[in-house]
Design goal:
With 424 residues, this protein is an alpha/beta fold. It is built from 17 helices and 16 strands. The strands form four sheets. It has a seven-stranded mixed β-sheet, sandwiched between helices. It is elongated. The structure holds pyridoxal-5'-phosphate (PLP).
Length: 424
């Protein structure tokens, strides 16, 4: 069995640092096994203090981190551990809390991280189902086992970013400001800069981002909006919720995206906008779409819900039309830990209207200028998104490398039986 993440009890770490062969025959084997197989192992904050004080007591070495030799062992083993928070809530009636507070805290940290614990402590093993002895762990753990690859693994990126996400959550809790505060303002600046555009307005989700753009442009009853026939339902719903009519246009068979060659035939005197979707992260062919829109005096609204960071002719999606709607639904390339969305635009007037529309039509509390909506990106989600945005380019590159492997190793379909989709 393969364990996603293990937490090492302090005794295991001390066995290694103090070379306690007689107590633990696997004192060196287990740490080396973890390091050599790249198995992530964690330590919670309270353990570091315990490890330090026991080490100093048993070795008689005060300030041991100042000694180059012990420092090396510490950096190599303890320094490479994934740091975990020791959760704050304490249930004093829990059997472990009554038995041994340190074990209780270790178990709480493991529970919060959904991790097993490797320990030599038999009492601990009896009181917690999460515990495994080093022998049992090594016997059970097969590094060559191939676990099934989940279609979408939302745990892995958050485990990788746990420390940053927890720090982000603390910033919000400590600020006491939960709606439209510094985190949303900072994320809006950072995401606009990332998209190489002037403005970003954080909203409730991707559907509302598109809907609010249409509303802000005054598109509604009696108007038509050109949409791809092949897209997620939200593209169409944004149009119908605004009171306008979606006019479907068939895709280009090479890209699955809106085919510019078929757009003009669908334009009528009621058409107000074209809503291309950058499906699966592949930008729609924006130059001809923008040229058609300019000829007919139409707005171009990008549905960029699936295309954070994608580039069209060197330019980032989000700044390729009059405005763009993004989704931060958890499964997206840039996903929140809940719902979220944003509009990106270079149009200052539109940005101003959207800031009013998303917030009950109000600029000043209790002064409601227009019939607005409650559609705001939460401070907490903005704080998480700021951390994840720093990784977006790396993660997109990783997705492309994986896609390239699939494309290289899957046999091609016989001619005429598939669409020739590109990897990026
Ligand atoms: C193409 C497209 N447009 C719009 C949306 C709507 O985003 P949300 O789910 O955040 O409302 C999504 C995703 O769900 C999408 O894939």
């Amino acid at each position: 069995m393969k364990h996603e993440q293990v937490l090492l009890d302090s005794d295991i770490v001390l066995d290694y640092l103090l070379e306690r062969r007689e107590l633990n025959p696997l004192w060196e084997t287990l740490p080396l096994y973890l390091i050599q197989h790249g198995i992530p192992y964690c330590l919670a904050a309270h353990q570091l203090v315990i490890i330090q004080s026991v080490y100093e007591r048993e070795s008689g070495q005060k300030s041991f981190l100042a000694h180059p030799e012990t420092r090396q062992a510490w950096d190599r083993f303890v320094g490479a551990a994934v740091p975990l928070k020791t959760p704050a809530p304490i249930d004093w009636n829990h059997p472990l809390a009554r038995h041994d507070l340190a074990d209780y805290l270790t178990e709480s940290a493991a529970r919060a991280a959904d991790s097993i614990i490797i320990t030599r402590n038999q009492d601990f093993t009896v009181l917690s189902e999460r515990c495994l002895s080093p022998e049992k762990f090594l016997a059970e753990h097969d590094p060559d086992a191939q676990p099934p690859v989940p279609f979408l693994d939302l745990k892995a990126p958050h485990i990788e970013l746990r420390a940053e996400l927890e720090a982000a959550q603390d910033r919000v809790i400590n600020s006491g400001w939960l709606i439209l505060g510094q985190e949303v303002a900072a994320f809006e600046r950072e995401f606009a800069a990332y998209c190489e555009a002037e403005h970003c307005i954080g909203v409730g989700n991707g559907l509302e981002a598109l809907h609010l753009i249409l509303r802000a442009f005054g598109i509604g009853a009696g108007h038509e909006v050109i949409v791809p026939s092949n897209t997620y339902i939200a593209t169409w719903l944004a149009v119908t919720q605004a009171g306008a009519t979606p006019i479907p246009v068939e895709p280009d068979e090479r890209t699955y995206n809106l085919d510019p060659a078929r757009i003009e035939a669908a334009i009528t005197p009621r058409t107000k906008a074209i809503l291309p979707v950058h499906l699966y992260g592949q930008p729609a062919d924006m130059d001809p779409i923008n040229a058609i829109a300019a000829r007919h005096g139409l707005k171009v609204i990008e549905d960029a819900a699936q295309a954070h960071g994608a580039r069209y002719k060197g330019r980032r999606t989000g700044g390729l039309g009059h405005a763009a709607g993004f989704s931060f639904y958890p499964g997206k390339n840039l996903g929140a830990l809940g719902d979220g969305g944003a509009v990106v635009t270079n149009d200052s007037q539109l940005a101003d209207t959207l800031r009013v529309l998303r917030n009950y039509g109000s600029r000043v509390k209790y002064h409601n200028e227009v019939q607005g909506y409650n559609s705001r990106l939460d401070e907490l989600q903005a704080a998480f998104l700021r951390e994840k945005l720093k990784r977006l380019d790396d993660w997109n590159a990783r997705r492309q490398a994986i896609a390239a492997r699939y494309l290289a190793h899957l046999s091609p379909l016989p001619p005429g039986e598939g669409l020739g989709v590109r990897a990026s």
